[in-house]
Amino acid sequence: MNKKFTRTARMLAGVGVMSVAVVACGSTAGTRSAEGYPTENIRFIIPYSAGGPTDVTARALAPCLSKELGRSVVAENVAGGSGALGMQKLIGSKADGHTVAIVSTGMTVLTPLVNDLDYSKDDITPIGVISHVPMNLVVGKDSSYKDAKAFIDAAKADPGKLTVAVSGSSTPQAIELQRLEDQYGVDITVVPFDGSAGATTAVLGGHADAAFINDAPEVSARVEDGSFRALAVSAEERQKHLPDTPTLVELGYPDLTLAVTTYALAGPAGLPGDATSKLAATLETCLKDPKTVEIIGARFVPETFDDAEALKGILDEGAAVYKTMLKK
User: Fold this and answer.
1) Cβ-proximal residues to 60 (8 Å cutoff; 6+ apart), any chain
2) Contact 102, 54 (CB under 8 A)
3) Where are the alpha helices (DSSP H) in the chain?
4) CB atoms near residue 11 (< 10 Å)
5) 0.85 cut: is pTM over it?
6) Phi and psi dihedrals of 292, rounded to 5?
7) Cα–Cα distance for residue pair 85/42, rounded to 1 Å
8) What is the spatial distance between Cα 267 and Cα 271, in angstroms, rounded to a whole number?
9) Beta-sheet pairing, 210-214 with 124-140
């Protein structure tokens, strides 16, 4: 499946860079040592624009990371290229533990494969998993499509007419929508943005028929208040908070289960072992912090911490699957 998206709308957002300093809390902390790493403030790269689930997750973590490490953690949005610009900035940084990023399986594995970029998953140091987030197919409250069957039937009846907003042109959800056409004959026009915030705005403003975006807390909140209607979820099982929303598997699309985003903490390749270990221990501590977990979404945080080795396995598996898929 190496063909280009034939009707992908040209609505990529421009590169946005915004930085916010998160002030360190306290002079001592559980994972801070008296000497050694960290010796300066930490730059925390967010490869998407402000307001989306990647940004929300990173900014939920930053205060706790700052408190535990005893240094300011400076969150910086570097949006563009479905996460590629932020990844390149991370990879090009000094490998001393003072620059890290929130990364996803899409930007780490899929984006460089689809776009033939000069980086790969081997150019980062995995630290640990933050969360696993499935995708929701949602429409606006005034949409005439009351369920997934009606939406898909309409797409089949008028190929290419319906538009679905996604968080990037080479994200897992964009690829899965292309597979929906390739394998099942459901032809939908993919409208990519640099992050879920733009995709959300497009649906709310009536500029896209639907969005295929992270089932993040802010998306669930819009479903609960009636702004969105959830038609389907990419998880293998129905989600407890959306008991009436069927899975893509139930709807007859069993292969479309790759659109589950794993968010993780990573550094550039060659990160020293002591820095990696301290960052992993700090991340594990923060993923047990009630306030942090509440913002990220408790249902997305693994019950048992997935460390660097587990994260590497996830990235390796994703690379193997996508390489095979993109050759078809």
Assistant:
1) 292, 295, 296
2) yes
3) 53-69, 84-91, 105, 111-115, 148-157, 172-184, 196-204, 217-224, 273-286, 290-296, 308-327
4) 17
5) no
6) -65, -45
7) 19
8) 7
9) antiparallel
Q: Domains along the chain?
A: 17-133+261-327 (3.40.190.150), 134-233 (3.40.190.10)
Provide the 10 A C-beta neighbour count for residue 203: 25
Residues 213-250: tens digit of each pLDDT? 988 778 888 999 999 999 999 887 888 889 999 999 89
Tracing tokens 């072992």 back to the chain, one arrives at 273
Instruction: Give the pLDDT confidence of 112-147 residue by residue, as tens digits.
Output: 988 888 999 999 999 999 999 889 999 999 999 999
Eight-class DSSP state of 300 = G
Let me know: does 213 contact 200? Beta carbons within 8 Å: yes
Closest to 267 measured CA to CA, from 55, 102, 113: 102
**CA–CA dist 277, 284 (Å, integer):** 11
Torsion on CA atoms 113, 117, 123, 128, rounded to nearest 10: -50
